[in-house]
Amino acid sequence: MHQTTEEPPAQEPALSRRLLARAAVGAAATATVSAGLVAGLPGEATAATGRRRKKRRHKHHRHHHATTPTPPPVVITPPLVPEERSLLVLERFTGGWSPTLGDEVAAAGGIDRWFAGQLDPAGIPDDFYTASSSWWFSLLASTDELWARDRAGTEGMWVASANYERWSMLRRMYSQRQVLETMASFWEHHLHVPVDADGVGLFRSDYGRMIRDHALGRFDTLLQAAITHPAMGVYLGNAVSTKKAPNENLGRELLELHTVGRASGYTEDDVKSSARILTGYRVDEWKTWSVLYDPTAHWTGPVSVLGFSDPNAAADGQAVTAAYLSYLAHHPG
User: Fold this and answer.
1) Which stretches of the chain drop beneath a pLDDT of 70?
2) What pLDDT does 62 receive?
3) What does 231-297 look like in DSSP terms, one character per residue?
């Protein structure tokens, strides 16, 4: 009799450690993908690799930098400003203090010696004057030459005036004769003839040179030269003034602006006499531009202005004009 042996039920094979590890990793990957989808994060990349993200390794390159030497500290030495008195003189009689001008004063031996030297401009080398004067033909051209160029259309008289204006500005900036240029500027304002006044272009450069010739001299001499100059006559209408119709512009401005001023108390009769004295100084405007004294245009008869009186009987009134201008130049008014 055979005994029947019952076989035990078949058992599942035991899981190896490797299989357990793989199972665990798979479960973790599935969970990561699910979490990534819910959170909106790129979980697919993690699910695809199933591995930890590797940190990107940056290759560190060695850079060889040149060694920059440390510069020495910059020491700024302020310019030596002159003492108060010297500074006052320079501010009033030049275009303004500068280190270069300060060096000139020091080289001269101080402000007093420098100023004394400036009062003799002929003794100061000024090559810029000669050089700059040749830059514009009109500066040294005669009235006839300028008028011919104007008629030919080569250069209008207004251009000649503008050229003088440019030259004058350069003189103030670069001339070594600073006191002369400062005083010339002062007198050009006081005895003013605008460069753009109608008809003065042929005479304006000459008027400026005349001012410089007398800028450091006597006022009475300068006044004589300025009032009888054709530029002044054209500007204020005295160039067309006659004994039949004296133009009062220059006679009035001579009293009000150039000499005694309104506070002196001059009257309209004084203005009329002043204008009559100045008749005779003529310019042939817009024809030949010739300058002359015309005795036939001079008003004759007694004149009286602020204590000055003269019978004024001669047809040639140049002598009475000179006496009148000298009187005004020395008037205490």
Assistant:
1) 1-66, 78-82
2) 57
3) HHHHHTTGGG--SSS---HHHHHIIIIISS-GGG---HHHHHHHHHHTTTEEE-TTTT--EEE-GGG
- Within 10 Å of residue 331's Cβ, how many Cβ atoms? 16
Biggest CA pair distance of the chain = 191
Task: Please count the residues of the chain.
Answer: 333
What is the reported pLDDT for 131? 84
Predicted local distance difference test score (pLDDT) of residue 126: 84
3-state secondary structure of 305: strand
Instruction: List the domain boundaries for the chain.
Output: 119-217, 219-333
Smallest Cα–Cα separation from 274: which of 235, 234, 317, 231? Answer: 317
Q: Is the pTM of this model over 0.85?
A: no
Token pair 């008028």 is found at: 147
What confidence score (pLDDT) does residue 283 get?
Answer: 98
Q: What angle do CA 277, 279, 264 make, to 5 degrees?
A: 40
